[in-house]
Every structure is written in C-alpha cells, then in structure tokens.
Amino acid sequence: MKPHIYFNSNIDSPDEWKAALSQHFPDMKYSVGEVCEDPESVDVALVWKLPNRGLSDFKNLKAVLSLGAGINQLDPEKLPRNVPLARLVDDSLTQTMIEYAKAATFRYHRKFHLFERQSREAQWTFLPATLARDTVVGVLGLGELGGAIAKSLAEEGFDVAGWSRTPKHVDAIATYSGKDGLSDMLACTDIVINVLPLTDDTRSILNLEFFVQCKRGACIINMGRGHHLVDADLLAAIDAGQIQAATLDVATVEPLPPAHPFWGHPAILVTPHVAGISTPETAAITVAQNIRRALNGEELAQQVDISRGY
Ligand code: NDP
Ligand code: OXD
Q1: What's the whole-number mean pLDDT along residues 255-274?
Q2: pTM, whole model, 2 decimals?
Q3: 268 CA to centre of ligand 2 in angstroms
Q4: 4 counts as catalytic
Q5: Which helix H or strand E contains 4, and what residues bound it?
Q6: In ligand 1, which atom is closest to the CA atom of 148?
Q7: 195, 225 in Cβ contact below 8 A?
Q8: What are the extents of the domains in the chain?
Q9: 144 band by pLDDT with thresholds 50, 70 and 90
Q10: Coiled-coil regions in this chain (predicted)?
Q11: What's the rounded Cα separation, in Å, for the pair 19 and 5?
C-alpha cells in the first residue's frame, strides 16, 4: 500500500510521526502543514487541528484520523461530510492517563495535598490515613480511558464507581447511567474523576448543580476538557467547603491565562494538559490499522458517531 497521508498538528511532531508511519508504509507519500500541494491525491488526513481552509480540496479523502482521543478540537463546520472520522486509541495514552489518575487519587487519598500545605507552614500535625477500600472514587465516562482508569483503581483496592451514557456492567465497579444515576453516584463519592468527551450534553457538566450533589468535601480531578468545568462554580463550591480540592489538567483557555484565579489557589493544582501522552511509535500501530481499513473501504475502528458527538 502506498497511501498519501496528510498531517497537520501544532502539538505533535511531524517528523516523529513520519518515522513511525514509514515502518508500516515504507512507500507512503507524506504531506505536512497548512497548505497541501496535491490535496486531491490525499487518502487520509491525520490531524490534531484541521487546516484553516478545511479539507474541501481533499476530493478523494477516505478518512480523517484524529491525533487526539478527543475530537472536539476539530471544527465540525470544516469536517467533510460523508468522510468517516476516528479518534485515537493508543496504549501509551491509556497508560499515562491511568498513571495520572492514580497519582492524583493517591495524593488526595493519602492527604498529600494537606501535608503539602502543612509543610509550607512548618506545621507538624498528624492526620490519620484511611484504607483505599474506604475511599469511593467515581469515574465520569467508562469508555476506552475511563474504563481503564476505573479498572486500575479498583485493582489498587479503591471502592470504584463509574458513570456512562448507556448502562454498563463492569466487574468490580458499581456502574451508573442517566441523570438519576449521576446523583446517586455523586452522593457517596469522595474523589470524582472526569474523563468524559466534550459534547453538547457534557459541556459545563461540572457546575454548581453538580457540586451540590457531591458528598461534602469531595475532591475533583478533571482530565477531560476545560469546557466541562464552570470555573466560577468550582471556586464558589470550594469557598463554601462543598468541594475540598481540585486537580485540573485541562482549561477552557490553554495555556491558562496568567491572571486566572486557579493559579496559586491553595485548593487547586493545575497541570498543563499532560495527563495523557501518546507516543507516535505505539499510536502508529492503531493509526496504520485504520489507514488500511480506509484504503480497503472498511469501517474504521474507534469511528466517531458525529450525531452523538464522540
Ligand atoms: P470514549 O469515547 O471511549 O468514552 C467516552 C465515555 O463517556 C463513554 O463511556 C460514554 O458512555 C461516556 N459518555 C459520553 N457522553 C456521556 C453523557 N452525556 N453522559 C454520561 N456518559 C457519557 O472516550 P475516551 O475514553 O477515549 O476519551 C474520553 C475523553 O478523555 C476524551 O474525549 C478527551 O476529552 C479526554 N482526554 C484527555 C486527555 C488529557 O491529556 N487530559 C488525553 C486523552 C483524552 P457510553 O459508554 O455509554 O458510550
Ligand atoms: C487527547 C488529548 O484528546 O490529548 O488525546 O487531550
């Protein structure tokens, strides 16, 4: 196979991707950047962002493959209709998301966020530890990433619950779905981890109404998208003592602007969208499978249902 692959991203290395993809397609043609010289011969677009002009000149495009697990960064107006879109699944992305979720969860579970504060204030105050089985972790989203995170936290001994759009059965995890299911789960959850995709239904889901339903003193870990969170509502919920602390890997504007009240807030830890890191070498395996599928006219793996938004 000699696919013509068009690559566009402001955050991924085109050279590393070229090296990884050429292991699978040694004779491929590879075009990079905003302007593609021969768009009509492109088979597959591999993109984090769409080029400003969109893909309308790419008359023979067989697939758009996202360089992210999320696809909300792709302007729907510029996405060609009738061309299938797939999101990224990558072992290294999943593994790093699991590590981040575990690190943030253990930090709250073992009260490191409080000891960090005490340490800065030269305060030697004993705070007792609890067992993992007595800490309830609720995961919003039980897909590729949320499902793997929930499973790995259950393996660490936490009491894990998970929420999805459709009902699910997952071994060792209490599962919930729908609006009522969310209220039931939040009422008993100590640490909430958000790994939802950003859709019309999930935008601003982490709002005051949500925080009020949480167990008093719950901690929030947002690994989804910045637009899931209403920033002012989080600050109000922390001020009211309803939410104890938050770890935020994503922001509505990235980088988070210097004057944003999250910076320096004693109850908030900000990380610069580092939770999940995909590696071209491993990600190219699933991408190459999808390129073959596209060239053979087969349905893509991890194909996005545009009407559902993920
Ligand atoms: P998936 O599509 O595999 O899973 C999405 C999950 O969310 C599914 O369980 C789905 O339910 C659930 N869901 C969707 N809409 C709703 C809703 N309205 N109510 C309840 N549940 C809902 O996605 P991934 O797991 O691969 O990725 C999830 C997100 O993680 C990405 O979209 C991105 O935003 C974020 N991400 C963040 C990264 C970071 O570095 N911070 C890195 C990678 C991803 P159902 O199972 O019923 O379909
Ligand atoms: C992704 C991300 O969606 O990095 O993969 O956020």
Answers
A1: 98
A2: 0.97
A3: 21
A4: no
A5: strand 4-8
A6: 25
A7: no
A8: 4-90+278-295, 91-270
A9: very high
A10: none
A11: 13
Reported as a pLDDT band with limits 50, 70 and 90, residue 53 is very high
* Residue 273 known to be catalytic: yes
Rounded CA gap, 206 and 212, in Å? 10
Distance 164 CA to ligand 1 centre (A): 9
Query: What backbone torsions phi and psi does residue 178 show, to the nearest 5 degrees?
Result: 75, 175
Of 4, 107, 113, 273, the active-site residue reads 273
Residues having CB closer than 6 A to ligand 1 are 69-70, 93, 97, 141-146, 163-166, 195-199, 201-202, 223-225, 249-250, 273, 275-276, 310
Tell me, what amino acid is at 23? Q
Report the distance separating Cα 52 and Cα 72, nearest Å.
16
Which pairs count as long-range contacts for 33-37, CB under 8 Å and 24+ apart, including other chains?
A: 33/8, 34/8, 36/6
Count of CB atoms within 10 A of residue 209's CB? Answer: 12
Q: Verify cis geometry, omega within 30 degrees of 0, for the bond prior to 255.
A: yes
Question: Quick one: tokens of 103?
Answer: 């690190």
CATH topology of domain 4-90+278-295: Rossmann fold (3.40.50)
Cβ-in-10-Å burial (0-12, 13-18, 19+) of 30 comes to middle
CA of 76 to the centre of ligand 2 (A): 17
The tokens describing 60, both together, are 């023979």
**DSSP calls for 155-177:** HTT-EEEEEESS---BTTBEEEE
Same fold, 4-90+278-295 and 91-270: yes
- Is the separation of the CB atoms in 78 and 55 below 8 Å? yes
